[in-house]
Amino acid sequence: MAGVCVLTGGRSLERAVSLRSASRVERALLGLGHATDTIDMGPDLTSRLRAGGYDAAFICAHGPGGEDGTVQELCEMLGLPYTGAGVSASARCFDKALLKDELRRAGIATPPWLSFAGPALAQLGAGEALPDVAERLGLPLIVKPARMGSALGIGVARDEGELRTAVLSALAYDERVVVERFREGARDLAVGVLDAGDGPRTLPVVEAIPQGRQLYDFDARYTPGLTEFAAPADLDRELAEEAGRIALDAYRTMGVRGFGRVDLILSEEGIEVIDLPTIPGLTETSLLPMAAEAAGIGFDRLVATILASALCEDPA
Fold it and tell me: Of 49-58, 68-77, 149-158, which gets the smallest average pLDDT?
């Protein structure tokens, strides 16, 4: 059995979700017989990791600091194996603009978009170009902070006034914004990917169906009752296979390892990738555990498989 530190918390706005994921992972690790410490990431993290003598870090820290390559860099410096994607893949997937650039170059479908930074608005008067953005991409648009998870700070703009408001709201979460074509009536799909010792494989497609809401936003993700889930999603076999193929292509293109989740939308335009969380939530309402369960993989086995990928061991 291994000595495992579960890294969680930190100062991200996704702190509460991180703590919920970590609590569930800690219980699973203890049930599997591992010696486990949960560490709330802060200024003493390096000293605690150096003194702990851990065999691996199980990263449950969502958002900036945990999912963007920062804590992964620290683990690399200390020579500590860790779960999930490496430094470069974490950073590139966390920034939606970089992610979409790489997907486009690889020929993987993603909705049309533009991105720009707050200083362009403040220093270069780029706010005057927002009508041009609306004309080029076509309304309605969805506006997102480029580097934030859990659908925090997103909004839909149906006219130029709403676009300006949505951009300012998104800039409260990150200095860079992604403005993307909004697919009316699109279905929200997710494909979990798991490395189980013989290369990455996809889990069944899960669909999130918000109740009385137009977006699968933060509240819909983490408030029981606001979203119904279909695991597996109600798709014909060809569509399900296509979603899995696209997800695996995106996962490999971005150089992700260990595990991850590829978020997709299905609309009249087909299946498109919109996000690739490299540390997907592991809470009771999170999509990756639902997908694993649909594949006959219980939560403890899911955690064991993720840990084994960090230790380069056979998950069995």
Answer: 149-158
